[in-house]
Design goal:
This protein has 33 helices and no strands. The protein is mainly alpha-helical. The relative contact order is 0.03.
C-alpha cells in the first residue's frame, strides 16, 4: 500500500516538474547583479528600490526573478502580499513563499486563505506547502483546520515525508492532543529519525509531562539512536522539572564524553538542572567552563540565583556581565526584578532601576511591567507611575500592574481612572478585573465594585471565579453589608472555598457580629474537618469587640488547651553594608 502510494506521488511529480520547471533562465550578468542585491537587502525600503529597477528592466515578467523578489519581501508580509496579488499566474514556489511568510508573520491565519487558493488552482502540493500551513495551524491553535490538512496529507501521499510527519507531531502537541500525536508517531514504520523522537520529547515537556519524556529518552537509548544536542537539552529540561539529580548526573557525564558541554543550549540546561535540584554552585562551575557565553547563558544563572533568593549574587553577576561587555536584554533583569518585588528587597530593586537608566535600556512591555510591579510592591509608587508613563508599548499585563499598584497604595479612584484609560485601546483580562475589584475593596467603593463585576460579565463575557467573588464578599463585608455578603457566598458554585468565608469572618470581627461569626465558624469547621487557629482567633476577637469578654476568655482558653498554633509571621530588614 505504501509503495503504490509512493509510486503515484513519483509519477505525478515527474509530470508536474516538466510543466512547472523551465530548463533555462536567460538572465544577463546585470540581471544577476540585481538579483544578488535582493539577498543583501535588510529593509523593505531597499527591496522597494530593487523592485523599481526590476520593473524598468522587465525582470518582473520573468518567473525566476519575480520569485526571488517575492522571497526577499516576506520580511514585510504586506508588501509581499501586494506583489503576489498582482501576479497573473503564480507558480507553486510563489504560493509556498507566501505560505511561509504568513506562517511566521503576525497574521498566520492568512496562510489558510493562501492554502485554499493554491488548492483551487489544482496544483500538486509539495511538502513545503504542508509544513508552512501546519506551522500556521500550530500558531493559531487551529485544531480542526490542522486535522483537515492532515487528511489532505494522507490522501496526497505526503505523509511519507518525515518532515511533514514532524510538522504534524508538533501541531498536535501544541494543540494539546497528546493521544493523536503518539498515535501518529506509532504509525511511523521505521522510527530511526531522531528529529521525530526529539519532537515527541519536547512535546511531552511542553505538556508538563517530564516523566513521560524521560521514559521516551530511555527507549531511544535502548534502540541505539544517536543522541543529538537537542535530545540532551530536552531530557535535561525534563530531569530539571523533576528535580532529579540522580537522573541528571549520568546525563552530565554523557555530555562531557560527547563534547556537548560547549554547546550553549546544553550548558544552559545543565545550569538550570543543578539549580532546580538545589546545587546552584555546581551550575556556576559549568557557567565558568563555557569559553564563549551568550546573553541567554548569563540570563539563566542570574535568574536562578534570583529565584533562590540570592539577590546579591544575581546583582554581582549583572555587574560582571557589564564588565565582560555583554549587552543585557529585558529578560536579563525581569526574573531579578520579580524576585525583588516578591521579597520586598527595595535596595536591590533600586539598584536594578538605576542600572536600567545607566544602560539606557528600552522600556518594552516586559521590562517596563516588571519595574512597575516591583516599584509598587516596594513602596515607590511615584517611580512606578514615571516608568508606566514612559512605556511606549503597554500590554494588558502593564495596565493590570499599574491598576494593582494604585489599589495596594489605597488609591482606588486612580485605579479606576487607569482602568477606563486602558479600555480605550486594550481589552482587560480576568486578572485586570481582579485587580480593580481589590482596589475598590480596599477603597471602600462598594457601588463601583458591583458595577465592575457587572461589566465583567455583561460587556466582556467573563465568568467570575472564586477570587472575584472573594473580592466582592470582602468589599461588602468592609462596607458593613454582612448579610448581603453571606447571601452572596451561599450562592457560589464552589461551597468549599475558604477564602470567601474567612473574609466574611474577618468582617464579622470588624463589626462585632457574633451570631453570623459563629455560623461562619461552624461552616469553616465543616470544610476543614478540624479547628483552624486563624478562624478561632478571628471569632475570639469578634467576642472581644462585641463586649462578650467571658466568651473571649473561654475561646482563648480552648485555643491554648487544644494547642492550636497560628503560623508565625516574619519580617525582613534590609541593611546597607
Amino acid at each position: 500500500m505504501i509503495f503504490s502510494s509512493a509510486s503515484r506521488v513519483r509519477q505525478k511529480f515527474q509530470s508536474w516538474s516538466i510543466h512547472h520547471f523551465p530548463k533555462y533562465h536567460f538572465t544577463t550578468p546585470e540581471d544577476q547583479n540585481l538579483i544578488s542585491l535582493l539577498g543583501s537587502c535588510t529593509h523593505a525600503s531597499e527591496i522597494c528600490q530593487v523592485h523599481g529597477s526590476m520593473v524598468k528592466t522587465g525582470l518582473v515578467n520573468v518567473p525566476f526573478t519575480l520569485s526571488k523578489l517575492l522571497a526577499s519581501s516576506i520580511q514585510d508580509i504586506d508588501y509581499a502580499a501586494s506583489i503576489f496579488n498582482h501576479i497573473p499566474n503564480p507558480n507553486l514556489f510563489m504560493f509556498n513563499t507566501m505560505l511561509r511568510g504568513y506562517s511566521i508573520s503576525h497574521h498566520p491565519r492568512q496562510a489558510f486563505v493562501i492554502f485554499n487558493g493554491l488548492r483551487a488552482q489544482q496544483m500538486m502540493l509539495d511538502l513545503f506547502s504542508f509544513i508552512s500551513t501546519l506551522k500556521a495551524c500550530s500558531r493559531e491553535l487551529a485544531h480542526e483546520t490542522g486535522q483537515a490538512i492532515h487528511g489532505v496529507v494522507v490522501r496526497s501521499g505526503h505523509g511519507l515525508f518525515t518532515k511533514v510527519k514532524n510538522a504534524l507531531l508538533h501541531f498536535y502537541f501544541v494543540c494539546g492532543r497528546i493521544g493523536d500525536a503518539h498515535q501518529l508517531f506509532d504509525e511511523i514504520p521505521q522510527k530511526i529519525d531522531v528529529v521525530s523522537w526529539n519532537t515527541l520529547l519536547s512535546g511531552y515537556i511542553q505538556m508538563s509531562q517530564p516523566t513521560m519524556a524521560t521514559c521516551l529518552f530511555r527507549e531511544m537509548c535502548r534502540k541505539g539512536l544517536k543522541l543529538s544536542t537537542t535530545t540532551i537539552t530536552s531530557v535535561l529540561c525534563a530531569v530539571s522539572d523533576l528535580g532529579n539529580l540522580d537522573g541528571g548526573l549520568p546525563l552530565h557525564g554523557h555530555c562531557v564524553k560527547m563534547g556537548f558541554c560547549s554547546d550553549l543550549n546544553v550548558a544552559t540546561a545543565l545550569i538550570a538542572m543543578y539549580a532546580n535540584a538545589g546545587f546552584i554552585d555546581l551550575g556556576r562551575k559549568i557557567f565558568y567552563q563555557v569559553p564563549e557565553k551568550d546573553v541567554v547563558l548569563w540570563n539563566c544563572l542570574i535568574d536562578r540565583y534570583a529565584r533562590n533568593g540570592q539577590l546579591q549574587d544575581s546583582l554581582a553577576l549583572l555587574q560582571l556581565m557589564k564588565h565582560e561587555q555583554v549587552k543585557p536584554n529585558s529578560s536579563t533583569l525581569v526574573g531579578l526584578i520579580s524576585a525583588c518585588a516578591a521579597a520586598g528587597a527595595s535596595g536591590v530593586g533600586l539598584c536594578i532601576g538605576n542600572y536600567v537608566e545607566e544602560e539606557q535600556m528600552a522600556l518594552d512591555a516586559v521590562l517596563g511591567t516588571a519595574l512597575v510591579d516591583m516599584y509598587c510592591k516596594c513602596g515607590f509608587l511615584e517611580k512606578a507611575i514615571d516608568i508606566f508613563g514612559r512605556m511606549e508599548i503597554k500590554d494588558v499585563k502593564s495596565w493590570t500592574a499599574m491598576i494593582s499598584g494604585y489599589g495596594v497604595h489605597g488609591q482606588a479612584e486612580n485605579a479606576i481612572r487607569i482602568f477606563h484609560r486602558m479600555e480605550e485601546g486594550c481589552r482587560p483580562s480576568e486578572v485586570t478585573f481582579l485587580a480593580v475589584l481589590h482596589a475598590c475593596s480596599h477603597g471602600g467603593m462598594m457601588v463601583e465594585g458591583i458595577s465592575f463585576l457587572e461589566k465583567m460579565v455583561r460587556e466582556y463575557g467573563f465568568s467570575p471565579k472564586v477570587e472575584h467573588y472573594g473580592c466582592m464578599i470582602d468589599l461588602l463585608g468592609r462596607a458593613g453589608f454582612l448579610e448581603e455578603a453571606h447571601n452572596l457566598i451561599k450562592s457560589l458554585p464552589i461551597e468549599g472555598d475558604t477564602t470567601g468565608w474567612r473574609a466574611l469572618l474577618a468582617a464579622c470581627r470588624v463589626y462585632g457580629n457574633v451570631n453570623l461569626g459563629e455560623r461562619v465558624k461552624r461552616i469553616l469547621l465543616e470544610i476543614f474537618d478540624k479547628q483552624h487557629p486563624t478562624d478561632s482567633i478571628l471569632l475570639s476577637s469578634t467576642y472581644a469587640i462585641a463586649g462578650r469578654l467571658p466568651d473571649y476568655t473561654g475561646r482563648m482558653q480552648e485555643i491554648k488547651e487544644e494547642k492550636m498554633m497560628k503560623e508565625a509571621g516574619c519580617s525582613a530588614i534590609e541593611m546597607n553594608e
